[in-house]
Specification:
heterodimer; A: 230 residues; alpha+beta; Gyrase A, domain 2; Cyclophilin; 4-stranded antiparallel beta sheet; 24% helix; elongated; B: 347 residues; mainly beta; 2 domains; 10-stranded antiparallel beta sheet; 7-stranded mixed β-barrel; 21 strands; 42% strand
Chain lengths: 230, 347
């Protein structure tokens, strides 16, 4: 698989694979990232990933650029996509009562129930987290429920809201403004800074949405909103 | 010994920051941390703190605090009139303040951010993913993840005796740029240099860009001659380092700073080198930014500059260490006094 290595200023080096949303590329990216994190290299402050890139925050006063390139190239050439340790399936319960559910149904020319069926009828891969703490970029949504963003974004969307924006679906981990079509909400806390594990999701994970009713929603919420077993 | 200081006026924005948070970058948590690491590191060094001790970042002056228990402070950064009990005081110098003393910053004359270091180990503030930096958006770090307000009290446990120390030479290029209306910063091209026309890249390096009022800790929004894309300003999202320069569809550069989002989908024409970021942190609306192109082979020169700075900041030659100090409480004619007696090292 082809890649290129680029310097972003004096404190970051990036590995770029082909610029597309592709499960195979993303698996390789995650596998390389995890390996680089495990190596605990002196002078490396952080290793992060997106759909098709890996970024290494480093300090050249502690690790030379030559050595970094050598290590990174070595990993890119030897690590295989199936070495990514991301097979665990996570169930996310969703109460499908979003205020834009009708808008999505009308736009797609189907019923509300059918929107829900199609939204939870497939497994999703988390390609990356970004934008805000714990925000997942899911891949795999049924394109038939794609709906354009709202013309004017809402000032505040509550944490846990599940939305659709064009061909993407996502969950807001913290209260924030946004223009996504809201179709439901999860009682799970995607980001909880007071918890031992502040992030519920990580890149490479597979996620399945399961519809729940409002009683179940309240029950999970009361139980702390950190786990769900069905 | 316990130090205690109360915020009387936080100014426009005052928050607790340190070197930033790296542990959440892969999970979408911003780096945060100080905008001007040069002034911040110096402030801590001058009060005798370990590098990385939290400090106050104060935007735009107009700050006032009242001391409740003796505290050693140092203010650095923007050129700002500073007063201790209405008497002129100096930046880049440590002061021992006693109960009832007031420290005040007037408006900034040059630059826009001041750093106040407080000697000792801070207590009562939040640490998240190994950093005390305040991230107001995620509500983490600092004091309950928010900017400081009137009435907030900061405490620190003194780890050593007070120090009397100041910066003696102002030779670092930082000081010259601080007072300059045009800030020159060095930029390494990329990673999306191929998204721009050669005219676009020439425009970027030959024109001056004015900083606008919509700039903040997330990014500096500039305006000037538009940088021309070949086709699209959008990319598949990738990581954004501190100092990356995004060019969205309107061709107007945005320099991504401490509170930037971790990833983004706009083309990045280049990245400002880390040693020039403190200069940008002090730019104010109406100032101009000029981008100087450097090559990859010059990165080592930048490393050397950074190493030299770090060494200078660590050096403690021009200090007067306090060997011992004792606190007394005295009553004279029913009037209560806190006294601090210090044994100074001879210089």
């Amino acid at each position: 698989m082809n890649y290129s290595i680029k310097w972003l200023g004096d404190r970051m080096i990036c590995i770029y694979f082909e610029e597309k949303i592709d499960e195979f590329i993303n698996k390789k990216v995650n596998a390389i990232k995890n390996r680089l994190i495990q190596m605990e290299l002196q002078g490396v402050d952080a290793v992060t990933s997106t759909f098709h890139t890996i970024s290494v925050y480093y300090d050249a006063l502690e690790i030379s650029r030559e050595k970094l390139v050598e290590i990174i190239s070595d990993q890119c050439d030897t690590v295989l996509p199936n070495q990514s340790l991301d097979s665990n399936l996570l169930i996310i319960p969703i109460l499908y009562d979003g205020e834009d559910l009708d808008r999505v149904a009308t736009h797609c020319g189907i019923t509300r129930e059918e929107v829900v069926n199609r939204h939870c009828g497939t497994d999703y891969r988390i390609y990356m987290l970004g934008f805000s703490p714990g925000f997942p970029y899911f891949g795999g949504m049924d394109p038939s429920i794609a709906t354009p963003r709202l013309k004017s974004p809402r000032m505040k969307i509550k944490a846990g809201s599940v939305g659709i924006a064009d061909k993407q679906t996502g969950i807001y981990p913290i209260d924030s403004p946004g223009g996504w079509n809201l179709i439901g909400r999860t009682p799970l806390k995607l980001f909880d800074p007071l918890d031992q594990c502040p992030f519920l999701l990580s890149s490479g994970q597979t996620v399945r949405f399961v519809p729940i009713d409002s009683i179940e929603f309240e029950r999970i919420l009361l139980a702390g909103g950190r786990t769900y077993a069905c | 010994m316990l130090a205690k200081i109360e915020i009387i006026n936080p100014g426009i924005q005052c928050s607790i920051q340190d070197h930033g948070r790296y542990g959440g970058l892969d999970y979408g948590v911003s780096q945060s941390g100080v905008m001007d690491v040069f002034a911040y590191d110096y402030a801590n060094s001058i009060v005798g703190n370990l590098s990385g001790t939290p400090a106050l970042e104060i935007l735009g002056g107009s700050f006032k605090a009242l001391v409740h228990k003796p505290v050693v402070i140092c203010v650095t950064g923007a050129i700002t009139e500073m007063k201790i009990n209405s008497v002129q005081a100096r930046l880049w110098e440590s002061y021992l303040l006693n109960r009832g003393d007031q420290v005040e910053l007037k408006s900034c004359q040059s630059g826009i951010r001041n750093y106040m270091a407080i000697q000792g180990t801070w207590s009562g503030i939040d640490k998240f993913l190994n950093s005390y930096s305040t991230d107001e958006k995620a509500k983490i770090g600092g004091l309950s993840g928010r900017a400081l307000k009137r009435g907030d009290v900061l405490s620190a446990i003194w780890t050593k005796g007070a120090v009397k120390r100041n910066l003696t030479t102002y030779v670092d290029p930082y000081f010259k740029q601080l007072t300059s209306k045009v800030k020159e910063v060095r930029v390494l091209l990329g990673p999306q240099e191929d998204a721009f026309t050669s005219i676009g890249i020439d425009t970027f390096f030959n024109c001056e860009y004015e900083m606008t009022t919509t700039s903040n800790r997330m990014g500096l929004r500039l305006k000037g001659q538009a940088v021309e894309h070949i086709e699209s300003p959008d990319i598949l999202s990738d990581a954004i380092p501190f100092g990356a320069i995004q060019i969205p569809g309107d061709g107007q550069p945005i320099i991504m700073m401490a509170d930037r989002q971790t990833t983004g989908g706009y083309t990045k024409i280049g990245t400002v080198v880390s040693t020039d970021l403190p200069v940008l942190a002090q730019a104010r609306p109406g100032d101009f930014i000029r981008f100087i192109r450097i090559g990859q082979h010059e990165l080592e020169k930048i490393d050397l500059e950074r190493a030299r700075r770090q060494n200078q900041i660590r050096q403690k030659k021009d200090k007067t260490e306090i060997i011992s100090s004792k606190q007394f409480m005295v009553n004279v004619k029913n009037q209560h006094y806190d006294l601090l007696v210090e044994e100074l090292e001879s210089v």
